[in-house]
Amino acid sequence: MAMNKKNLKKMFPNLYRELEGGENRVPIDGVREDATVAEEERDVEVCECEEAHQYEKECAQRTKIPDKLRHFNPQAVDFLRRCDTADQAEEIIAYLQKKGEVSEEYAKELRSQLKKSGVRSFGPKKEENYYFHEGGIY
Predict the structure, then answer these.
(1) Taking the CB of residue 84, how many other CB atoms lie within 10 A of it?
(2) Which of 1, 28, 38, 55 yields a CA-CA distance of 20 to 30 A from 77?
């Protein structure tokens, strides 16, 4: 179904009003290439509303994420450790290479290690809910 303004207005009148009104737009003043700088600046911002600040503290205490998993981004080896067979591992490597997550050189290194030493050479298998167990959540 082609989405034109008329259909959008009919199906989502509130969304259409917000998009056309322009009152909820947020300007982007700059771009940071280093995420750590952005995080540091975010951490030092002062909250103007003490009530909101207190709510955030209470919420953070209830849903505390262990520091070792905070901002964790799995790498190629983390995905390979979930594989049961060499075929699955090869499929993961090919996918990551296609998506640009790993370079051609690194993909060759991973394939070489896979052929020489097998799937478990990347480490023990990460079972289902591994990160929940690791973080003490599950």
Answers:
(1) 9
(2) 38
pTM for this entry: 0.50
Q: What is the SS3 assignment for 42?
A: helix
Nearest to 122 by CA among 113, 132, 133: 113
pLDDT digits (tens, 9 = 90+) for 56-91: 666 555 555 556 666 778 889 989 988 999 999 999
Tokens 């503290």: give the residue. 57
Tokens 């290690």 label which residue? 113
pLDDT on residue 58: 60
**Around Cβ 93, how many Cβ atoms within 10 Å?**
23
How far is C-alpha 128 from the geometric centre of its chain's CA atoms?
Answer: 18
Cβ atoms within 10 Å of 73's Cβ, excluding its own: 5
At what angle are helices 86-99 and 104-117 packed, to 10 degrees?
180
For 111, the token pair is 């394939």
